[in-house]
Fold this sequence. Notes:
By secondary structure, the protein is mostly helical. It has 13 helices and no strands. It is elongated, with a radius of gyration of 18 Å. 38% of the residues are buried.
Amino acid sequence: MSIWGSLIGGMIGLSLGGPFGMLLGSIIGSKVSRSRSQSFANPQQIFALSLIVLSAKLSKADGNVSKEELIAVKDKLRIPDNEIEQVGKIFNKAKEESSGYEPYARQISEIYKENLNVLEEVINILFYIAEADGEVSPQELSMIEQIARIFNINETQFRSIQESRKSSDKLNPYVVLESKPNDDISIIRKKYLILSKQHHPDLLLSKGVPEEVIKESKNKMRAINSAWDKIQKLKKN
């Protein structure tokens, strides 16, 4: 069953505080608990909700909500046509409300504070959404960078995510592997093994990343492997 089919209904009765609780409460039309506790029957639900809300905020970051970005949100999150209406309610509500993205990013950061690689995946998918109309605008990049800071993703990790989005023939392998050209290959190999483990699709699935959006983590893995192959060749020369 698609994660989207039970997204709103699955949240009813759960203890969901902060901006997400307020947003869902306004959509459902009933009071949602606003206690500080976080209780989710399915961790995929909060990940999916996070993507919808942040995508909505991102889509208007440069003041222009393009058709390509809206299509990208639907396609990237693999939202079936028969479920787009309820997902659209969340998207439109988040897009129209006056509050910014920061409160949502802080709540997401708190929920996934022990799973940095899951937060990195959120950033990865936001890049995909921003790229949908051909380029990432300065406003969109600034917003994604700020979300990364709220997530406690450092500059090196952020640049790795950004670089991994390039085609294999254009990416800088050292940036992808969070390394430097003068690092010994044994050190780079350790980094490669760590990143390979952290971004393995099976691990992300176990931590709550929905199967619907796991494709981007597979692309990240391909970039990591490609970078390691390049560095091995460079170090031999």
